[in-house]
Amino acid sequence: MTEIPEHLLKRAAAARAASSGDEPAAGAPAEATPAATPAKVPAQVAPAPVVEAPPAPVAPYMTAHFVRKKIPWWAISALLLLPLWAFTYVGTLERPPQEATGVLAEGDQVFGARCASCHGATGGGGSGHALADGEVLVAFPSVADHVVWVVQGSDTVGLGNSYGDPSLGRVVEGGMPGWGDVLTKEQLLGVVLHERARLSGSDDDAALAEAIDDAVHGDTLDLAGHFDPATITAHEVEELLASGTVAGH
Ligand code: HEC
Q1: Contact call for residues 208 and 124 (beta carbons, < 8 A)
Q2: Ligand 1: which of 106, 110, 119, 171 to mutate, judged by most atoms within 8 Å of the beta carbon?
Q3: What pLDDT, on the 0 to 100 scale, is given for residue 99?
Q4: Residues 6+ apart with CB under 8 A from 30
Q5: Are 241 and 209 in contact, with CB atoms under 8 Å apart?
Q6: Which in 6, 109, 212, 216 has the greatest CB count within 10 A?
Q7: Closest approach atom of ligand 1 to CA 195
């Protein structure tokens, strides 16, 4: 059981001899080292051709990779900021609530809530007259007269009295509420200009609405409070519009 085979013992002995420096193969170069220079030269010449293998040919696409300019460091920092920019940019895509402010936007809202039930959603008419397609511009060539009518309504103007452009011969038949006590000056001008600029397509009145917005924002025009149905005149409305650098009509 514990007997070691002969061939293994021989191998162990050979290994011991090699590690102690007795092996002839290891001994030869050790002796050559201290030899004179001429002896060394042929020893180095021999392995040289083995080491000097021709360099592997570089593929054209790799050459391009080594030669071309790399992305500069500052561009990399810009690239890293791209996601942040994208995030911010997406936030700007949402439509700003522009139409939510301004006298025309207000008028649009008021019309939908207070007038559309009788005059139609787009002013096409119903129990009330048609206001679209220029109709209301024919009835009221002047913005101021239009405002006075909406402020007063049928009852205040009085049944049987004429209203609007005299050449039309309109006579109050009743049924149009007065809005002076209900709507503020701003809402009233808004709904009147909405009927003229949006429903009847008057560019002049769209420009007037813009001028009013500018004057309100510039604090030169105050549209708070109400028009008084009992005392309102076209002249009063014109004065108000003319004040605050707004060109009156
Ligand atoms: C209850 C129904 C009703 C409502 C609500 C109503 N109107 Fe009228 N409107 C009428 C009637 C009816 C007339 C015709 C009045 C008359 O003959 O006395 C009229 C006439 C008018 C006219 C004159 C049109 C023309 O060609 O003669 C204008 C302008 C007008 N309305 C604007 C408005 C505005 C602005 C509002 C909302 C703030 C409004 N109306 C809400 C029923 C209504």
Answers
A1: no
A2: 119
A3: 53
A4: 21
A5: no
A6: 212
A7: 35
